[in-house]
C-alpha cells in the first residue's frame, strides 16, 4: 500500500511538473526546438534574464575632455557661425534628443531665413565613433555571425537571422556597399561630416571658408585656437576652418555622451537588468527569422572584441519606402533621391545596381526618434513596423494610388530602378494577400524591446551647453 501511494504521488508530481513545463513552453515566445536545444538558456530568457552575461563589456570610460574636444564643444553650440546666426550643430543635433532633432519634421529647416527645407531626415550623431570607412567589397563575416546566445552556446537559443547579401543583380552579389557617414556614405570622417551641414544652403549656410574663418576670429574662444595651434592659424583661413572641424570631430569622439552605452539593453547584456515579459517577447520577434528578422541587419550581438552592438551591419539596402510629399524637392516629379547613386554623391551615379540604397542606421535611441528612414516619411515606430509588415502583403496600406487607382509600389524610385528593392530577405519575401509576419501584439512587443535601447537606464546625464 505504501509503495502504491508513493508511486501515485511520484506520478502526480511528475505530471504537475510536466504540466507546468508545458504551460511555460506554450506561453514562451520561444518554440519547442529552442527549448530542446538549450533548455537553460531558453528558461533564463523567459525570465527576462541574459543566460550568458558579458563580464567584460568594452564600454568607453568617461574621462576629461582634451582641450581640442572642449574647443569642439564650444563650436558645436555656436550659432553665430551659421548664415542666420541662429543655427548651431546642436539645433538639429540636440543633446536632449540623443543628438537628433527635437521636432517631428521629416526634414529640418535652415538657410539664412531658417525656412529652407532639406531633402533628407537628419540622423542622430550618437554611436558614430566606430563607423568604418565606406567600401564596396565582400561582406564582413561578423555580420553573418550568430546572435548573442548562439555565439555563447552554439545552437543554443534562437533561430539564426537570415539575410541575403543581395537579392537582385548577381553581378553585385559579392560586392556589398558598407560604411561611411551620411545616408549615402559619401564621407568617412566626422571632420568631413561636419563640413557638410556647415556649408549646405539648406542647413547652416555658413557661406564659404573665408566667411567662417572671419567669424571664428571674432569668437570668444579664438584664444583656444592660438593656444592649440599658434597665432599663425589666424592668418590661414583654410587651416583655421579645418582645425575647427577637427575639433568638432574630437568632441564627438571623446565625449561619451555620444556613445554612453547606458541603455537597459547594455545592463541586460551584463546581467544587471531583467527584461519585462513584453521586452522578452519583442527580443524574440526581433531575432526570429520567421517573424521580424530585424537582427539580420540590426546586429544585436557583442563583437568578437567584446564591444557592445551598434544595431547595424553598416550595409546599404533599397527598402522601397514610400515617397514623402512633405519634402519640397519631391514636388518635382522628376526628382528622385537614389542614395548611393545620387544626387549628393556622384562617384557611383553610373552604378545602377546601387540606386535606391541607403545605409542601415543603428537602432540605439531609436524610440526617441520622431522621423524615420532617409526621407522621414514615418513619425512613429508603429508606422515603421507596419511598413515592414504590409509593404508586400497589403501595399495599399503603404503606398498611394495613382490617378487610375493603381497602387504604385516603390514609388520613390524611378521605374527602372525598382528592381533593386529587396524582395528576398524576410519579411520582404511575403506575397500579396499573405498573412503578415507580425501580429499587432508582436509589433507592440518589438517596440517595447526597442525602448530598451534608449540611453539613460544607467544615469549618465546629457551633454550640457558650455
Automatic annotation (TrEMBL):
Enzymatic class: oxidoreductase
Record carries keyword Oxidoreductase: yes
Gene3D superfamilies to which the protein is assigned, alphabetical: Cytochrome c-like domain
Presence of the UniProt keyword Oxidoreductase in the record: yes
Cellular compartments annotated: Cell envelope
Signal sequence, start to end: none
Main subcellular location of this protein, as a coarse class: other
InterPro entries: Cyt_c-like_dom, Cyt_c-like_dom_sf, Cytochrome_c_Peroxidase/MauG, Di-haem_cyt_c_peroxidsae
Pfam families (UniProt xref): CCP_MauG
GO cellular component: cell envelope
The protein, known as: Methylamine utilization protein MauG
Record gene name: mauG_1
Amino acid at each position: 500500500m505504501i509503495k502504491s501511494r508513493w508511486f501515485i504521488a511520484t506520478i502526480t508530481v511528475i505530471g504537475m511538473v510536466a504540466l507546468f513545463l508545458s504551460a511555460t513552453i506554450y506561453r514562451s515566445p520561444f518554440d519547442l526546438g529552442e527549448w530542446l536545444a538549450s533548455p537553460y538558456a531558453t528558461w533564463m530568457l523567459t525570465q527576462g534574464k541574459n543566460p550568458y552575461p558579458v563580464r567584460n563589456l568594452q564600454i568607453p570610460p568617461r574621462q576629461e575632455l582634451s582641450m581640442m574636444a572642449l574647443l569642439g564643444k564650444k563650436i558645436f553650440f555656436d550659432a553665430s557661425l551659421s548664415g542666420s546666426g541662429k543655427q548651431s550643430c546642436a539645433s538639429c543635433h540636440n543633446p536632449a534628443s540623443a543628438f537628433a532633432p527635437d521636432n517631428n519634421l521629416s526634414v529640418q529647416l535652415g538657410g539664412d531665413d531658417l525656412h529652407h527645407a532639406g531633402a533628407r531626415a537628419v540622423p542622430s550623431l550618437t554611436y558614430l565613433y566606430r563607423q568604418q570607412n565606406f567600401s564596396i567589397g565582400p561582406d564582413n563575416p561578423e555580420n553573418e555571425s550568430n546572435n548573442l546566445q548562439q555565439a555563447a552556446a552554439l545552437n543554443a537559443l534562437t533561430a539564426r537571422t537570415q539575410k541575403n547579401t543581395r537579392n537582385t543583380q548577381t553581378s553585385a552579389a559579392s560586392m556589398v556597399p558598407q560604411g561611411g557617414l551620411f545616408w549615402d556614405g559619401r564621407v568617412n570622417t566626422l571632420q568631413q561630416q561636419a563640413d557638410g551641414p556647415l556649408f549646405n544652403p539648406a542647413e547652416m549656410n555658413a557661406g564659404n571658408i573665408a566667411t567662417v574663418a572671419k567669424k571664428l576670429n571674432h569668437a570668444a574662444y579664438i584664444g583656444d585656437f592660438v593656444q592649440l595651434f599658434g597665432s599663425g592659424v589666424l592668418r590661414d583661413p583654410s587651416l583655421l576652418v579645418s582645425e575647427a572641424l577637427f575639433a568638432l570631430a574630437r568632441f564627438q569622439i571623446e565625449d561619451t555622451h555620444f556613445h554612453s552605452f547606458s541603455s537597459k539593453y547594455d545592463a541586460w547584456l551584463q546581467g544587471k537588468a531583467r527584461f519585462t515579459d513584453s521586452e522578452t517577447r519583442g527580443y524574440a520577434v526581433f531575432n526570429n527569422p520567421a517573424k521580424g528578422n530585424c537582427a539580420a541587419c540590426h546586429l544585436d550581438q557583442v563583437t568578437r572584441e567584446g564591444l557592445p552592438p551598434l544595431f547595424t551591419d553598416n550595409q546599404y539596402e533599397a527598402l522601397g519606402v514610400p515617397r514623402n510629399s512633405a519634402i519640397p524637392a519631391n514636388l518635382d516629379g522628376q526628382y528622385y533621391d537614389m542614395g548611393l547613386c545620387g544626387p549628393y554623391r556622384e562617384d557611383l551615379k553610373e552604378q545602377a545596381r546601387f540606386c535606391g540604397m541607403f545605409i542601415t542606421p543603428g537602432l540605439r535611441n531609436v524610440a526617441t526618434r520622431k522621423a524615420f528612414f532617409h526621407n522621414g516619411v514615418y513619425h512613429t515606430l508603429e508606422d515603421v513596423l507596419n511598413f515592414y509588415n504590409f509593404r508586400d502583403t497589403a501595399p495599399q496600406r503603404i503606398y498611394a494610388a495613382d490617378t487610375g487607382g493603381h497602387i504604385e509600389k516603390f514609388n520613390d524610385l524611378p521605374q527602372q530602378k525598382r528592381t533593386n528593392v529587396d524582395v528576398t530577405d524576410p519579411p520582404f519575401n511575403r506575397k500579396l494577400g499573405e498573412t503578415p509576419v507580425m501580429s499587432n501584439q508582436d509589433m507592440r512587443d518589438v517596440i517595447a524591446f526597442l525602448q530598451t535601447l534608449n540611453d539613460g537606464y544607467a544615469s549618465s546625464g546629457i551633454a550640457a551647453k558650455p
